[in-house]
Specification:
This is DNA polymerase sliding clamp. The chain is α+β, with helices and mostly antiparallel strands and 245 residues long. It is built from four helices and 18 strands. The chain folds into two domains: 111 residues, Box (Proliferating Cell Nuclear Antigen), CATH 3.70.10.10; 100 residues, Box (Proliferating Cell Nuclear Antigen), CATH 3.70.10.10. A hairpin with a 2-residue loop joins β11 and β12. α1 runs antiparallel to α2. The protein starts with a strand and ends in a 5-residue tail after the last strand.
């Protein structure tokens, strides 16, 4: 098994987010592409990764290979990469995986392939009252502003757009709208409001680096879904449980 990804920064971003959620994870390399699923330590959030083989510069996988790793250690390996360097992952022995960072100064690391139990995923059948496409940079800025003054981010949506609001003594509000150019389109079944942890959103907001726009979907007192799609058809989906009460 050997795959090459053109820009290591995307993987670095994903593993950085993953390291805040779990200690260990497993990448599934299948003939058609890679997959990863992880539930955070508190079982409050879920991350799902799916990259088709077309996402890669080189993709040679004849049969499924699982690469189990310590998230903090792999992040340290990827942190040695510079801008636009290539990532190569290879395995000829099920017990270990070789990670190469190819650039001006090629680097090679041999990692033990650890046995990681698959997460017990809840059976979710979600229907959302709000579905919107927003600029990633605008959503990131909104979360950062609210998180700086509040432990909760209140999402409120109507036909005019989506508002991110603080909860508590400090008042802050960021509006995503078509007029401002931060909202591309929105579908609403009914006006909706729901609260989510600003800490959890702050931990994953760097995923906005993956694409210029993102999908936001939620309903009152139901999970928030953030979806980031790449041009080659890859996706990272993040689900976060609401804060109730």
């Amino acid at each position: 098994m050997r795959v090459s990804y053109e820009d290591v920064r995307n993987f670095k971003t994903i593993i950085s987010v993953l390291s805040k959620l779990v200690d260990e994870a497993s990448l599934k390399f299948k003939p058609e592409g890679i997959e990863l699923e992880a539930i955070d330590r508190a079982h409050v959030s879920l991350l799902k990764l799916s990259f088709p083989k077309e996402e890669f510069k080189e993709y040679d996988v004849e049969q499924e290979v699982n690469f189990g790793f310590n998230t903090q250690y792999l992040l340290k390996v990827l942190s040695t990469a510079r801008r636009k360097e290539e990532l190569q992952i290879e395995s000829t022995d099920v017990s270990q995986v070789t990670v190469r960072i190819l650039g001006s100064y090629p680097k090679e690391f041999t990692l033990r392939n650890i046995d990681v139990s698959p997460p017990e995923l809840p059976q979710l059948s979600l229907e959302f009252d709000v579905k919107a496409n927003v600029l990633s940079s605008a959503f990131k800025k909104g979360v950062e502003e609210i998180a700086s003054v509040s432990e909760l981010v209140e999402l409120e949506a109507d036909e005019n757009g989506i508002k991110l609001k603080s909860k508590g003594e400090a008042e802050a509000e960021v509006e995503l709208s078509k007029d401002a150019g931060s909202l591309q389109d929105i579908e609403i079944t009914k006006p909706t409001q729901s609260d989510y942890s600003s800490d959890y959103l702050s931990d994953v907001i760097s995923l906005t680096k993956l694409s210029g726009s993102m999908k936001v979907a939620f309903s009152s007192q139901k999970p928030l879904q953030l979806e980031f799609n790449t041009e080659a058809g890859g996706s990272v989906i993040y689900l976060l449980a609401p804060q109730l009460g």
